[in-house]
User: Fold this.
Amino acid sequence: MKNNVVLIGMPGVGKSTSGVILAKVLNFDFLDSDLVIQKKTGKRLKDIISGEGIDGFNAVENQINREIQCENTVIATGGSVVYGKEAMEHFQKIGTIVYLKISYESLDERLGDLDERGVVHKKGQTLQDIYEERTALYEKYADVTVELDGKTVAETVDAVLAALQQ
Assistant:
């Protein structure tokens, strides 16, 4: 295992929630890349999106994520991180990328309103559109995929640990 674990996946799958617990179990630090973006820019994510637009936000997200330097850390990324090629190549170098995969049906139940959740999406884009577009990218970058349907947070953490040991 490279010495960081990078969690990717759709918004609402539990990257931050399970990431914190995973970090405790591994005796690692925990880093939420969305919080790093907010700290470095001094703005909330939705304010960056409304000010810079989606492409502008993606550029900021890509830039900040590709500069993250850490060791022995579980990194929970934003769901749109996979649009940043340089960020993802950086994460491939510094960690094992774990895709927390969920079915569209389960995701739809969990997420609710895209705007309220702050899900980055173009005007008129549905959750189904985003799901299909991002799934291909998550699969492209993942070293390991963990299926989440029907799993509790504890079961998710156990499944990630098992996958990392293979």
About this structure: DSSP finds eight helices and five strands in the chain.
